[in-house]
Structures are given as structure tokens and as C-alpha cells.
What we know:
By secondary structure, the protein is an all-alpha fold. It is 75% helix and 0% strand.
Amino acid sequence: xxxxxxxxxxxxxxxxxxxxxxHLSALYGDYSAAVMIHAVGLIVLLPLAFTWGRPxxxxxxxxLTGGLIGILTLVFVxxxxxxxxxxxxxxxMLLGQVTASALVDHFALLGAERNPFSGMKGLAIAVMAAxxxxxxxxxxxxxxxxxxxxxxxxxxxxxxxxxxxxNASLAVRSGVGFSTLMNYVTxxxxxxxxxxxxxxxxxAAFPAQGQSIVIYLGGALGAAGIFLCNVxxxxxxxxxxxxxxxxxxxxxxxLIDALGGRFSAxxxxxxxxxxxxxxxxxxxxxxx
Length: 288
């Protein structure tokens, strides 16, 4: 139960982080914002690097790829939001996470414990797909306007699961602190390389005038989220983890929207259906 609560808190942190990062990207551009986000996260973690962040064992090379895969997620999400809208991107990302997590559980991939597929899990996924459909239909957005954006939105769910599993595998082998730190080391190195190859594009000079410091806190929130993720991922089935995180993310996102004077009936209905699917999946896990 405690780890499920941590997973939900991680989902809430994702909502806050995405809100900060969206403002930063809109101001400076996607690639310069990616560098800033990883740099802030690394600055927050550096004081702990020589104690909490020291490795306990030698890591395998693929366990160090979590931060690099995270860059792909950022790019895929940005293209997806621009092509199919926020709700379309969110629903396709969830479907990507569900399918990737179900495969990870069923075949015990990437060090996960085997949690085989069942009829009740299939019903849970069907209910969640209905929730995604409700969010799309009631939002009025269409995912048919850009096939590439739709495909990348779906793939962003896969990259999120892969990054999460890589970081968790590293945490088990070399320690949670080291894994959290290395996510930002590799992420910053990769985003700096992309930023340099593109000619250091920036939409605004840094620091922009008249901006709240809050928009720069996405990296710090992400560092806390990655730590929680590294603690929880080895202890929950991949599909269960994805669902709890998504439910925490979507309902905290609704609260943020409500505080900003916005409300989406489609997101509420879809979120409730996804939560129902999560309960069905939890019941299937208990039976197994």
C-alpha cells in the first residue's frame, strides 16, 4: 500500500513538473529548456553526489540509459502535443504505457517479475481504452490530423516505461541515489549534445525578464520524482505502476486546471474510467 501511495505522489509530481516545463519550453524553446531542466535537477542533486549518490556496484551500460531515453520522451511529447493536442497526446501516451507495461509484466522483461496476462487484465485494459476514448470525444480534439504526431505520442508511453525500468534496474544494482543522479548526468549530456548540434537555438535570452522562478523548478521536481520512481518501480508490477502514476497525474492535473479556472468534463469521465480499470487490474494481480 505504501508503495502505491508513493507511485501516486510521483504522478502528482509529474503534473507539477510538466506545468513548469511547459512554461519553460514555451519561453526558451524545447531544446534549450531540456538543458535547463536537466541542469537544475543535477544542481539540486550535486550536494549529495559524494555520499548518497555513490555507486554500490558496477553498472551495466544499458542501465545508464534512463536519462537518454527521457530525452526521446520529451521530444515525442512536444511533437505529439503540437500535432494531436494535449488530450490526444495524454490518451495515446497512456495506451503506450499500458501496452508496454503489460508486455514487460507478461514476459518478465528488463528484470521485472513475471505477472502473466489474464482475462481480467484484458477487461481492465478495455475499460481504460474506453476512458481514453471518452477523454478524446468530450474534449473535441482529433488524433487524425497528424499520423506522425499520433505515433510518437503512443511511443512516448513506451519510452517512459523503458526509462523507468532502466533507472530502476540501475537503482537495484548500484543504489537509488546513484541511479537518480545518473539519470540527470546522462540526460544533461545528451540534451547538451542535441542542443549543440542544432546550433544552440534559444527563443529568448536567459534569464528572461519578468518571469517567476517557479518555471525553473521542473528539474528539481523531476529529481524528487525520479527518486520515488526508483524506489517504487522494483516493488510494483509495471502495469500497476503505470496506472497508479497516470491516475495521480490526471487528477492532480485536473486540480491544477481548476485552480487556473479551467475544467474538462472529458478528463473527469475518462479519469474515472481509467481509475476503474486500475481497480480491475489490481484485482487481477491479487488473484494471480
